[in-house]
């Protein structure tokens, strides 16, 4: 091993001498300790006093100069560590700024870093913001609500109809239950914006696929309108969901929550369809997750394909390989869409003139 430097050897010798002196006076602590000083502290204090008496030096100057019994200080190979340079415009004794300095006034939590646990996997730093879920273009097409806007043939000549007759008119040949909404509200334009924001929710948008969605303008609130009975009464609703025959309905008026809207929609779907809409919705969202993955892979491959065509031409082996991979993705998409059809098929409880394929075409909507 390398030899210690002279300074280090001198420091070790001084420390050994101090320990021997401390041991020599340790017996004082055993018979005279009126203040209850701990053993180690007493030994160091007695050794310091002994050295002060032997060298004829005051205790204050001895502590200031440093001795072998004092806490060790850093001394490098060439001497003690240099002190920090004074701040610009003042010495080391410059006053500490007070007030609002733009810096934290108290201790701050340390910033945690990502860790990797072999059993739990990687974790994110504490306090991070989760990334929002962004659907791909295929899933976003499913989020579009397909509204129908029925209108009377002639507002002036057509007679007013009762509630059942209006339902029979607006539902047409569509066997699905009805989701009915009118424009304009007695609560002001802010209410319309709030409701439309709720309709942008993914669960709501997907649940509407099992409804025949009908929308009306503000004109339906006029007393002379032939279909005014649909929103009659002293407190007309802004929207409601109703079964195909009109025997069960859920009125949504006033300020209602997103959960209330979903609960009403699921209740009507439970009257109309054999399968559970909640389970089907969960399965459908899993299918959309798969479509999101395919959209990302397909977009990346198409970008690479365009770059390779420019660099190496159409006849390149890598271009041909990418085209085969894109064809494989299209086959996977067709398989996933079959899974989507299975999730959408809730099976109507009542018989209708619509065939299964015709109803499925309405449920698919835009793709």
Q: Could you give the order of strands across the largest sheet?
A: 5-7-6-8-9
Largest sheet: 5 strands, mixed
State the end-to-end CA separation.
77 Å
CATH fold-level assignment of the largest domain: Glutaredoxin
Class of the largest domain in CATH? Answer: Alpha Beta
Contiguous low-pLDDT stretches (5 residues minimum) are 27-32, 66-78, 87-132
Tell me the structural class.
Answer: alpha/beta
Percent strand: 5-15%
Global morphology = elongated
Spell out the helices and strands N to C. HHHHEEEEHEHEHHEEEHHHH
Strand tally is 9
| Cα-based radius of gyration, to the nearest Å | 41 Å
What's the number of helices?
Answer: 12
Describe the structure.
There is one protein chain. This protein is α/β, with parallel strands linked by helices and 367 residues long. The chain has three domains: 6-73, no CATH class; 139-275, Glutaredoxin (3-Layer(aba) Sandwich), CATH 3.40.30; 278-344. 46% of the residues lie in helices and 8% in strands. It is built from twelve helices and nine strands. It has helices at 6-24, 26-31, 39-54, 59-65, 137-142, 163-171, 189-199, 202-207, 258-272, 277-312, 317-344, 356-364, and strands spanning 75-76, 79-80, 115-117, 121-123, 147-148, 178-182, 212-216, 239-242, 249-252. A five-stranded mixed beta sheet has the order 5-7-6-8-9, covered by helices on one side. A two-stranded antiparallel sheet has the order 1-2. Strands 3-4 form a two-stranded antiparallel sheet. Helix 1 (6-24) packs across helix 3 (39-54) and helix 10 (277-312) packs antiparallel against helix 11 (317-344). The longest helix has 36 residues, at 277-312. Mean pLDDT is 74; it is low at 27-32, 66-78 and 87-132.
